[in-house]
Amino acid sequence: MMVSTAGIVLHATKYSDTSLIVKLFTREKGLQSFIVKGAFSKKSRFRASLFSPLAMLHITYDDHRSDRLMFLRDVQRLTPAPELMFDPARSAILLFYNELLYKLLFDTGEDKVLFDFLEEEILRIHESETDLVELPLRFLLRLSIVLGFFPENNYTEQNCYFSLYDSRFQSYFVDENSHLPQPESQYLSQLLRQESDSSTLRHTRNNLLHYLIKYYKIHNEQLREIDSVGILSSILH
Residue 163, Cβ neighbours under 10 Å: how many? Predict the structure, then answer.
């Protein structure tokens, strides 16, 4: 059966001297794997550069429903080739999203709501004209809505410590493995209210990023370490 669908590149691995194995999260079929022969050849219809991290494509392929890798019949970019290598902040955000999603979606089936959300968020990286420093934090919070563990914003002067396990603010602090300290909790509450505070200290913002990764790991057992978070923290000011 011939399938035509939009897809997001999650991973591309070199296979032999000339080919790629590519994993895409597709709108119609969820996660799918393909072999792209001759991807490093100048004469190839599907050059390796098409399959850059989180590239948004429209693909056509024959879904033969077997364990073998499938072949792409047609590939077209849905967005222009990215120039993010000239923008360290956008490049770091893109790589962070890519690593997180690749590790989160390794066995995801069809999920059009999630696909449409990710499509919008990827475009946001390319098109945003505002300060980018809060973009990864806001992305993690928006993604948690789609994944089903969005934090409850019951922050008050008394309930001022966010519980990573209970997904709500509490009146007591146990330790940093289970609760956010007060500055990070207050900042999280501001983001949940969709407020922005340019005076937020960089270390508070970076701490919250690491806490949200920990929050994801608690609520998604398959999620491993996110190596790119350190690079992201060092680039965003």
Answer: 20
